[in-house]
Design a protein that fits this description.
- This protein is mainly β and 174 residues long.
- It has strands at 3-8, 15-21, 24-31, 38-43, 49-58, 67-68, 72-76, 79-87, 90-91, 97-98, 100-106, 115-117, 122-125, 131-139, 142-144, 151-156, 159-164.
- Strands 2, 3, 5, 6 and 7 form a five-stranded antiparallel sheet that branches. Strands 9-17-14-13-10 form a five-stranded mixed sheet, with no helix packed on it. A three-stranded mixed sheet has the order 11-8-16, with no helix packed on it.
- Strand 2 and strand 3 (24-31) form a beta hairpin.
- It is rod-shaped and about 115 Å long.
- The N and C termini lie far apart (77 Å).
Length: 174
């Protein structure tokens, strides 16, 4: 998502306004006259978290000296993702423990690099009895990748898998 920053300057000022996150330049916008005395800049690179010092600096022209705004506190929330996962079918063993084969994410914003990690996740069948298409619930999935800190898992979908009947061998003695 993009955040739109707008700086309003004195009547008659022309030139550029530079926007900052603390001392880091976010970008420069030109006072172009479309909206008198305003420079607007859109930024999509702010990481999730608190940014307590968003500010703007008018860079000056022949008639006006440079000037800076006071700080603006902007909190960027983590973007919520949905986890889908695949559970393995299994033979009846008396318990409802399920094995997770893989997981995937829905909602990652391109070109961000975020993946689903199921190495610490657990899953359970709705019950331990044999049957097809049994509901499996998973939890404990984590996010990995360089952009993972900008996201959170808000939904984990259920899936289905089967528990096959336990085969018995009958020996007949005559």
């Amino acid at each position: 998502d993009q955040l739109t920053l707008t700086a309003t300057v004195t009547d008659g000022a022309t030139g550029d306004v530079e926007f900052f996150d603390g001392s880091t330049t976010l970008g420069i916008a030109t006072l172009d006259g479309l909206i008198p005395n305003e420079a607007t800049f859109q930024v999509s690179t702010l990481a999730a978290g608190d940014h307590p010092d968003i500010n703007a600096t008018y860079l000056s022209n022949a008639s006006f000296d440079p000037s800076s705004s006071g700080p603006l506190d902007q909190v960027v929330s983590k973007f919520g993702l949905t986890v889908n996962f695949v559970a393995a079918d299994k033979p009846y063993d008396g318990n409802n423990t399920a094995t997770i084969n893989s997981c995937s994410l829905v909602g990652v914003i391109s070109p961000d690099d975020v993946t689903c990690d199921h190495s610490s996740a657990t899953a359970t069948f709705s019950d331990a009895t044999a049957g097809p298409g049994k509901t499996v619930t998973g939890s404990g999935f984590t996010l990995t990748g360089p952009d993972a800190a900008n996201y959170s898992i808000t939904t984990t979908n259920t899936t289905t898998a089967a528990i096959s009947k336990f085969g018995l061998t009958v020996n007949f003695v005559a």
